[in-house]
Structure formats: C-alpha cells, structure tokens
Amino acid sequence: MAYTLDDFDYDLPHELIAQTPIKQRDTSRLLVLDHQANTLEDKHFYDILDELHAGDAVVMNNSRVMPARLYGIKPETGGHVEVLLLHNVEGDVWETLMKPAKRLRVGTTVTFGDGQLTATVTEEREDGIRLIEFHYDGIFMEILEQLGETPLPPYIKEKLDDPDRYQTVYAKENGSAAAPTAGLHWTQELLDQVAAKGVKLVYITLHVGLGTFRPVEEANIEDHKMHSEFYRLDEAAASTLNEVRANGGRIIATGTTSIRTLETIGTKFKGEIKPDSGWTDIFIKPGYQWQVVNAFITNFHLPKSTLVMLVAAFTGRDQILNAYHHAIEEKYRFFSFGDAMFIK
C-alpha cells in the first residue's frame, strides 16, 4: 500500500508535549503494546523488568550528546551567528547547520567566546548546511564544553536545569546532535536489576544527526531522503547478540537509533549480525522486512515524522495510531522528555 505523509498525522494537544524531564527517570509511564495480540497495558517504566526474560538482550545506544550549539559573531560586521554541529567530517572540518545561512558564504569567518575558537566556512550546501573548519589552541572538545550548549529540540521551550538529564546514564561516545531519548528512562539501578535477571546488556553507537531536526516535506513518503548517520557495532556486541539469537532469546532495542543500527547491519548482511561500522540512511517504513529486532522501547514521536513511520513498520499504521490516541486520552507525556512505549 502506498502511504502519504498525511497518513501519519495525528492531533496532539500542546499541553502533552513534555517540557521538562520527570524527577526520577524510571517512574515515567510505559504503554505496553503487544502487536500480535493487539492489546494495550498502562504501566510505569520500572515495570519493564516484568517484560524482559532471562536470555534476552537489551541493546542501547551509548552515543553522548555534544554541547553542539555555538553562538558566535562575524568580526567584520558584528552579526550574530548560530551554529549547530552535526558531525565531524575530518580533522577540524565539521558539517553544521548555520543561521542566518544566506549571509554565511565560503570564506566567512566566525569567532566564538573571547576568540578561543574561530571558524571559516569552507563549503555551502542546501538547507542551511555549511562545512566549516575550526581554528584553536588546545583540545577542541574541552573548548566546546566551555563554549557550547546542549541543543534541545525546538518544541522544548523551557531551559534545562541539569544538562545531564538530556544524556542517558550510559552515554559515553561523544558525537550526537540530539539524545537517543528512549534511553533517558533507564537508571543504573534498573539496568543492574535487568542484568541480574539474566538479560544481556549490549551497547552500540549511532551518532544522532540532522535527520532528527529535518521534517518530512514530501507528500509521497517514498520521495523522502534520509540524512546519513554514523554507526558502529563491535565484535563483542555482535558475538553476544548472535549467542542470544542462537539460544532463542529476543533482541530488544532501546530506541529508534538502536533499531536503525541493528536493521542496517541485518539488511546489509542478509539477516546476519556482524561487527560493522559506517554511515546509514536507512528509512524504515511500512512494508519493511524486519531482520534483527524482536521488540523495542521507544518514546512517542512527532506527527508525520519518519520515526512514527518506523514504529508503524513494526505494528502496522492503524495499530500504532490507535495506541497514540489511547496515550492522548490517558494524558501520557510526548516527545523527548515524555513517556515510553514497549512494543513486542
């Protein structure tokens, strides 16, 4: 069946968009959707323990959100510039989103802080994307920690008191422009309980990039082009996942970034799980043939987004929209700081 963008729309009351994180990570609500039995259960995230069985594997994305938003000035005019770092191309060259892009041509210089960091635009691309090269003395990431801000999604209007609340407790590998938000519900204590139950904890990496910030604009979703993101699954992770599979356990992904990594590898290797790294622009939508993931944890996603389409590829469109309507009626909290679903 051919779907249009409007097929993935739903009406969300504005007050259900979570503006701040809940006080205790694992007390957020959890809507459990059994897509084969077509049942819904209202629980809390700490109840995830009841949904996981010895021999399963829970896969988590350990990418860390960089303080990727910088505010600078053009020395020749005094004009203000906003920069969002997307990913490191090579050396000190970064792909970025810049505003106001029209005034930022090749050769333009921008300074940040008290001149600790300067950047020169080296290439202009579409949609406000620019390649820039940084110049500095010292260690780039240390300077970035001083000058940069954690970039929050545009629908979050409140300032974040504790930047660590927009990081997972297992965030390790610097490189994301946005958090893998399904993982924000995990606490270390809950992960320890999961491991004690005989569930394997597996960490992979996908650095969240521009795709998170880019809306789908094409009416025919087949015409939408995903932005590439870097992923890595190492030998130890692949070995554990293959062992779990061989013993009949389920592979349970935490979030759409873990799904995209696992399914990229599964698609590439015809259903097999092998150590791999590279760039993925996989677009998972209804009709997709699942290769690796048996169940997953995810947040509630924006209307008309590629993430709603991804979830619908697992459950079917009608079932996921029915679940979303239930969540709205029950006043679940939506998006990055919102509640979660477990879909099995």
- The class by helix and strand makeup works out as alpha/beta
Quick one: CATH class of the largest domain? Alpha Beta
- The succession of helices and strands, N to C, reads EEHEEEEEEEEHEHEEHEHEEHHE
List unreliable stretches of 5+ residues. none
Overall number of domains = 2
Fraction of residues in H or I helices: 10-25%
Distance between the amino and carboxyl termini: 23 Å
Structure explained in plain terms:
One of its GO terms (biological process) is tRNA queuosine(34) biosynthetic process. The protein is of the alpha/beta class and 344 residues long. The chain is 20% helix and 28% strand. The chain folds into 2 domains: 5-65 and 161-343, QueA-like (3-Layer(aba) Sandwich); 69-149, Beta Barrel (Thrombin, subunit H), CATH 2.40.10. The chain has 7 helices and 17 strands. The strands form 3 sheets. It has a 9-stranded mixed sheet. Strands 5-6-7-10-9-8 form a 6-stranded antiparallel beta barrel. It has a two-stranded parallel ribbon with strand order 4-11. The model has no long low-confidence stretch (mean pLDDT 95).
Can you summarize this structure?
This is S-adenosylmethionine:tRNA ribosyltransferase-isomerase. This protein is of the alpha/beta class and 344 residues long.
